Amino acid sequence: MDQTAPPAIYCVSPAPADFVPDGVWEKPEWAGVPSARIDCYPWHKGGWTPCTEFKLQYSKDYLYVIFQVQDQFVRSVYTTFNGPVCRDACVEFFFQPAPERSPAYFNIETNCGGTILFNSQTARMENVAPMSEQQAALLQIARSMPPVVDPEIPDPVVWTIEYRVPLALLEKCGAVTRPGPGVKWRANLYKCAENNSHPHWGSWSLVGTAKPDFHQPDYFGTLSFL
Prior knowledge:
This protein is mainly β. It has 2 helices and 15 strands.
C-alpha cells in the first residue's frame, strides 16, 4: 500500500425514498449505489485481511450506512452499549459533519452482533461526549450475525451491518452542515478485530501513523454529497 496515497473521496448520492435498515446488502434500496472498499492495512505484517465494502446515501432526514464484510476468524462477545466493541469483529464510521466550522467528529463503532459505541469528540480522549443508549437506538442498527459469536468462527463468513443516522440527532449534539449538492464532510471508515486469532486494523482512507490509531482526523477522506 502506498504510504503517501492522497485522502480518499466517496460521492454520496441521494436516496430515492426513506427506508428502514434490515441488514440486507443486495436489496433494491441499495441497487446502483457505488461501493467503496476498506483496503488500507498499513500496519499489517502479513496474514488475514478481510474484504470490507460500504455504501452511503442520504435523504433530508437521514444518512444511510451499510457494510458488507467477507470475513474469517470472526469473534464477537461484547453486548454492553458503549463497550469496547473494537476488540470484536467490528466496523467503524468516523465523520466530521461540519469540518469548516468545527473539529468535532462522531465515531460510530459496531461489532458484528450489532452492539454499538457512539461518541462525539475532537481527538482521542479529548472532549468526549458519549451518546445515550436512547439516542443510539435511533440508528435502528440491523445485523446479519447473532448478538454473540463465541467461540471464534474459523471458516469464511459474510456479515453485514446497516443503520441510518438521524440528522436531527447530530444537530442536537454539535455543528452539522446538512447533506446536499456540493456539501462535503470529512470521514474515515474502518474494519478491525483485536481479540481474535488474526488481529487486523484496516481503513478506507490511509492513516499514516506508526501504530494503529483510528482517531486521526488529519487523515480523514472526503464525503462529497451529490
